[in-house]
Amino acid sequence: MSRIAAKFTSLASQGRKALIPFITAGDPHPDQTLPLMQALVAGGADIIELGVPFSDPMADGPTIQRASERALAHGMSLRRVLAVVREFRGGDATTPVVLMGYANPVEAYGVDAFARDAADAGVDGVLVVDYPPEECAGFAETLKHRGIDPIFLLAPTSSEKRFAEVARMGSGYIYYVSLKGVTGSAKLDLDEVATRIPQIRRQVGVPVGVGFGIRDGEAAARIGAVADAVVIGSRIIEEIENAPPGEAAARVRKFVAGIRSAMDASTQGATA
Predict the structure, then answer these.
(1) Structural domain boundaries of the chain?
(2) Edge-to-edge strands, sheet with 174-177
């Protein structure tokens, strides 16, 4: 069983939902990525999504774009991202790590070499935003061959054909984009998400995580009531961006702990 599958199985047995925070590797500086990952776990993260910085992140709003710019300015690269994961894995053998990014860095690295090196580093899942499932069957199989889950996006506008393709090729979990637009934009429609998630779960057959637009404990708790996982990115990047020098990890840990507490309180209230 993969680390991702084991994590969801363990959480389900406890009646809890996964908290999946996102940070951009190399932001605000490559030396701080490992402490930030450790802070996420200390705050209650179940799975870490680690963004691979890219110069043209089309799905990301201005907050995560700025994070990528800061990381790239300090020389962060896909190879260095894998080195950080390897270092993290040396002290944490259980927390799944998912790389989230774009096709260009992967193709520049070489698909086969990337899958090999990612597996060796301890990566558990990969989500490439601009690899639609209809066009990347070979990539998905390459990842699976190395024991890595290919993770795909679904959106409110996704077609039935897209659902079928994702169900056929995806594993680990599905990332449901809860709103139309880029990360950190618009207002989350919690009622719409509550309607869609049961439909998605029935069709894809793997856990469903929801992201884009979740900014506080109340929204996370409401999403956690219907989804299998809650993904938070832009709001955490803001904590990093606004933290005084040397305090980013502590700020992130405190913020994530608050989200974790709100999610757990909601779950306990529902099962009491």
Answers:
(1) 3-271
(2) 149-150, 125-128, 97-101, 48-51, 18-24, 229-232, 208-211, 174-177, 153-154
Of 60, 117, 149, 165, which one is the catalytic site residue?
Answer: 60
Domain 3-271 superfamily per CATH? Aldolase class I (3.20.20.70)
Neighbours of 87 (CB within 10 A): 15
Q: What is the mean pLDDT of residues 51-69?
A: 88
Token representation of residue 175? 């990332």
Is 239 among the catalytic positions?
Answer: no
Told to judge if 216 belongs to the known catalytic residues of this protein, a careful annotator would answer no
Quote the CA–CA distance of 149 and 179 in Å, as a whole number. 24
3 state SS of 157: coil
pTM greater than 0.90 (yes/no): yes
Q: Partners of 101 in the beta sheet?
A: 128
The catalytic position among 27, 31, 46, 49 is 49
In tens, the pLDDT along 187-228 reads 667 788 888 888 888 889 899 999 988 999 999 999 999 999
What residues pair up with 50 in beta bridges, in sequence order?
23, 99
Q: Are 22 and 231 in contact (CB under 8 A)?
A: yes
